[in-house]
Specification:
7-stranded mixed beta sheet; 9-stranded mixed beta sheet; A/G_cyclase; about 700 residues; alpha+beta
Length: about 700
């Protein structure tokens, strides 16, 4: 049983190397995934994370992922294998729903909605709704001007002449001019490589303060998680409807807003805009500047007023004073929210988020200056590396039973930390890479440790199966080799056995015959030793050294040793009878057993170590075995063994021999001659009698 020290060192080195490989691989994959998430959110391909230390690993991973994602071009488009945006969207959606507190108040913005109730009200009066006559919008503007609305922004396309005649357009144009702060929408369109702007009908365009684009920043998974601040056409950057409305409400002219937005500023402050590429079919490739949406909450978080209330306030019991309280000094968005219009978008909150409320959300963000920011890339990298290290260390350090719940707690801590960062600093931490890295590290580390456990089990079985009973071996498999072999002081029992008369047999026979006889003898004895779960420490010539209580603790080690000694004598009696039938001389086996403290562990040189015991207890057991001949006994045990065996229920039949002095020990010890234990008896071959029944 040599080489324990080298084995321990190899195991430690293997664990360190495995931990390092898992951390490096997981961090590289996680960093690439972070780039993929950011690229996916902005509709752009992921960039290769470049760090000199991980250049080779990153290049290999990049090549692998690019192949999986589809570097093969079909129909002029690359196959997109990206899972990041949709996964991150769901996670951020849950986070935003938990956050739900972007603004202290939403009192500056009101939405006038053409909802289902308004359409039903119009139908009941035989007023067409597809499209609604612009004279009705003119009436809405008149009511809003009287109520003191500061700015009115229409999220309703008016790019063509009215179907109801020029008088319809004239009525709206006059109402807009009378108000003085009305905005209309425009739309960026792409034809091949050319980008154009679909502006309102000229009669209307000339009567309003300006027109802002209403293109949505839609990702490849059809989700809106950012608001368009500006879009670029052949003439430069055009502000969005929400940005233009916020600027006009603050007293800025449309030209000033346009210049500020072109410099990515608003009110003299930099905007945390992201370069965005539209992924919506029909608008794919349009360049935008966008900001992450800081949602006020689910749809309906702003104050909504049905348009029918403004068209007929008296009918709905609304007084002019009430309208003034609702709209005085407010920024008003007019948009369609009815199911028939289908002006809804998928957001982290829902699949039916009104488009007009997205424009209102952007305006509120600009007015309150509460913008969401992605955490700096270096911080994301550092956080992911910390999570990878922490997860790997945790899995390697704790029991498998606790690794999973602790890993789940760690993932929960990431979610809570992301929510805290969002609430405290308006930081957006991409969660998918963090959680995916934690799961990946846990899975790979657990798989490696399971492999290491199985390898350890094979190693223990191969190393110890010749020395211990199968039941003891399985207990040893569950323990670490270091705990089994580390030198320590233990309370255990040692059994020594030796054959009397075997020298005469060996001198008269060939070496092969002697070896065959010894093997037969050892086979019979080890079967008994295994039955009582003893550990065969070594064979010394024709003698056997057996340990009880080590390497696996056995509280009843003394009782086991005594029972094993008597059972070995019974097995020897059967073996002796077989030998006599083959004409062999009579063999006598004598056994000594002693219990006490001893040092157990891997002991030896660096090149060769043995798992053994040393100490006075071992010497006494060996001396007791040798005293059997002069005392006329087959099994001698010390008083210590006698008392320990009786304490654990062994029913001993033993004769006290008295105090004897063993060689190498100054103090005499009391010894007992064992005649039997429980229902086992020692054969009486010394006097020539047949074994006792």
């Amino acid at each position: 049983m040599g080489g324990f020290q080298g084995t321990r060192r190899r195991q430690r080195l293997q664990r360190v190397v495995a931990l390092a490989v898992i951390v490096v691989t997981s961090a590289s994959l996680g960093w690439f995934y972070q780039n993929d998430v950011l690229g996916g959110i902005m509709g752009q391909p992921a960039a290769l994370p470049f760090t000199p230390q991980l250049l080779l690993v990153n290049c290999l991973l990049y090549d692998l992922v690019m192949r999986m994602r589809g570097s093969v071009w079909q129909d002029g488009r690359a196959l997109d294998w990206r899972l990041s945006p949709s996964t991150e969207t769901r996670l951020q959606g849950h986070l935003h729903r938990a956050y739900n507190g972007a603004f202290a108040h939403l009192l500056d913005i009101v939405i006038v909605a053409i909802d289902d109730a308004t359409e039903e009200w119009l139908k009941s009066r035989q007023i067409p709704i597809n499209p609604i006559p612009r004279t009705l919008y003119a009436e809405v503007l008149r009511r809003l001007r009287q109520a003191g609305a500061k700015v009115v922004a229409f999220d309703i396309h008016m790019d063509t002449p009215s179907l109801y005649g020029s008088a319809d357009d004239t009525a709206f144009a006059q109402a807009a001019q009378s108000h003085g702060a009305v905005l209309l929408p425009c739309l960026l369109l792409k034809s091949g490589q050319d980008v154009s702007t679909q502006t309102p009908h000229p009669v209307l365009y000339d009567s309003v303060a300006g027109a802002g684009i209403i293109n949505m920043s839609v990702d490849s998974d059809r989700v809106v998680r950012a608001a368009t601040v500006a879009g670029r056409d052949a003439w430069g950057w055009r502000p969005s409807l929400g940005a233009l409305a916020a600027g006009l409400w603050l007293g800025l002219t449309p030209d000033v807003v346009e210049r500020q937005i072109a410099r990515r500023q608003f009110q003299g402050r930099s905007l945390p805009t992201l370069p965005y590429v539209d992924q919506e079919p029909g608008f794919s490739g349009l360049p935008y500047q966008a900001v992450l949406l800081n949602f006020a909450g689910p749809e309906g978080s702003f104050r909504y007023v049905p348009m029918k209330v403004l068209l007929a306030p008296e009918e709905h019991g609304i007084a002019d004073a009430t309208l003034r309280r609702l709209f005085k000094g407010k920024l008003v968005f007019v948009g369609v929210t009815s199911k028939l219009a289908k002006d809804f978008f998928v957001t982290p909150f829902s699949a039916t988020f009104p488009g007009v409320e997205i424009h209102a959300t952007l305006a509120q963000m600009l007015l309150s200056r509460r913008f969401l920011h992605f955490t700096p890339l270096w911080m994301q990298r550092l956080l992911l590396l910390a999570m990878v290290l922490l997860t790997a260390t945790l899995v390697f350090a704790v029991r498998p039973l606790f690794a999973l719940p602790l890993t789940v707690l760690l993932a929960g801590a990431c979610l809570y930390g992301a929510l805290f960062a969002l609430d405290r600093w308006l930081w957006v931490i991409p969660l998918a890479p963090l959680l995916a890295s934690i799961a990946f590290v846990f899975a790979v580390s657990t798989a490696y440790l399971q492999f290491a456990v199985e390898r350890h089990a094979r190693h223990i079985r191969q190393r110890f199966q010749r020395f211990v009973a199968p039941a003891v071996l399985e207990t040893m498999v569950a323990a670490s080799e270091e705990s089994l072999t580390r030198p320590r002081l233990v309370e255990a029992t040692v059994l020594f056995s030796d054959l009397q008369g075997f020298t005469a047999i060996s001198e008269a026979r060939s070496p092969s015959e002697v070896a065959a006889l010894l093997n037969e003898y050892f086979e019979a004895m080890t079967a008994v030793i295994d039955r009582y779960e003893g550990t065969t420490s070594k064979f010394i010539g024709d003698g056997i050294m057996v340990l009880f209580g080590v390497p696996v603790p056995q509280p009843d080690h003394a009782a086991r040793a005594v029972r094993c000694a008597v059972a070995m004598q019974q097995a020897m009696e059967r073996l002796r009878q077989r030998f006599q039938q083959r004409g062999l001389p009579e063999l006598v086996m004598r056994i000594g057993v002693h219990t006490g403290p001893m040092v157990f562990g891997a002991i030896g040189s660096r090149r060769q170590m043995d798992l053994t015991v040393i100490g006075d207890t071992v010497n006494v057991a060996s001396r007791l075995e040798g005293m059997n001949k002069e005392l006329g006994s087959l099994v001698l045990i010390s008083e210590t063994t006698y008392l320990a065996a009786v304490a654990f229920g062994a029913q001993l039949q033993a004769e006290p021999v008295g105090e004897v002095t063993v060689r190498g020990r100054a103090q005499p010890i009391r010894v007992f001659k064992v005649l039997g234990v429980d229902d086992l008896t020692v054969p009486d071959i010394v006097s020539g009698a047949v074994p006792r029944k």
